[in-house]
Amino acid sequence: MRSLAFVDLETTGATATHDRITEIGIVEVDEDGSVREWQQLVNPGMRIPPFIEQLTGISNDMVADAPPFEAIADEALRRLHGRLFIAHNARFDYGFLKTEFKRLGVDFKANVLCTVKLSRALYPEHHRHNLDSLIERHGLHAEGRHRALADAQLIHQFWQKIHVHRSSEEIEAALKKQNARPSLPPNLDPTVVDELPETPGVYLFHGENELPIYIGKAKNIRTRVLSHFSADVRSSKEMALAQQVRRITWIETAGEIGALLKESALVKELLPTHNRMLRKNDEVCTWTLVDEGEGLLRPQLAWARDLEFGIGTSCYGLFKNSKEANEALRGLAESHNLCDILLGLQKAAPGKPCFGFQIRRCKGACVGKEPYAKHTMRLMTALTSLKLVSWPFPGPAIIREGDEAHLIEGWRYLGTAKSDDELTELLDNGRPQFDRDTFKILTKYVGKMEPLPVKNI
Q: Does residue 319 register a pLDDT over 70?
């Protein structure tokens, strides 16, 4: 019999990079079958949300005098060392512990067994495999649900039950299936699988050289990276990528927004050969309107890199280049009976009719048969669907995500900071060029933005 550690944690939330451990419970089982139990409350260094207090019964008062994780880290490491790490939804508990140890500069590794996956393998006829379902199904004795040691004891009981009701061959087959190594590219070090975090972030595939050949973002880096090498991948492009991969690196972020922004920025900076969609877009342009007087507004092409996109500036559409912009404007002329000359799509002497008027599409604003104001009203209606979101703040803004703050100004991503000093440094670094992909990301999260505090400006 191997040495085992049945582990359960209580935490302030579900995100390992932001939330913290409030209690740890471990049931140690030695090779000779002897059992020891350990339970420890932990001061998370942050407030426990009310719904978590209600769920676990662990209050802020209870952990106020408890030691921080750094004070009990050595004890936890000693109890886990050399043991098979067994937990229910093990990646959650393992991920939290790995992250807590990482904050202390400790690279914690363990062989991991998930009893959720084990239950699914042994009892596929059942649809539910949460701990409450296992209690009911196997007659486990629960002394206190959602407390760390009590739940660790339940996992231990489940382990004992399956060894009574299932043959050792069945259990070994289920364990072997769970621990099967994923199919990996031939030139990739297989130990990288154990290192991949289950957190949001950006991953970089490297080939023969240091520069990456592909950059991707993920809500769960481990899951997304392994999906590239799945045996059922049929895409020739994915297969070609897998053959070139020699090394994988990654950057963890506090959440999905940070991953999206970091991916877009890195692709522009490093230009990986397999990223075609997010390459540089130096020629991005948009339509603005110029007041010519007498009720006439005329479209004028502007380079996005030169604009502030402030509240006082109305912009219409983001186009890869002037050709695409003119094609879009020509389409509006045809669908809204607009004048090619007044739109700048056709050059002609004053008073001469445009081509659209000659084929009875234009209503004659070019030759005085329609007031400029009416033409302008139709133009404004036509442009409505293309109107871009204006930058809603007089200065920089931030999006808070976990312990990170993403700094934005004029739809330009300045960087991510974890302190006021880092925010100030980002402001001093100057602004990058406007980027269409970053703009598309940020407009989805404008509701999460808040003005940068005055003290940081």
A: yes
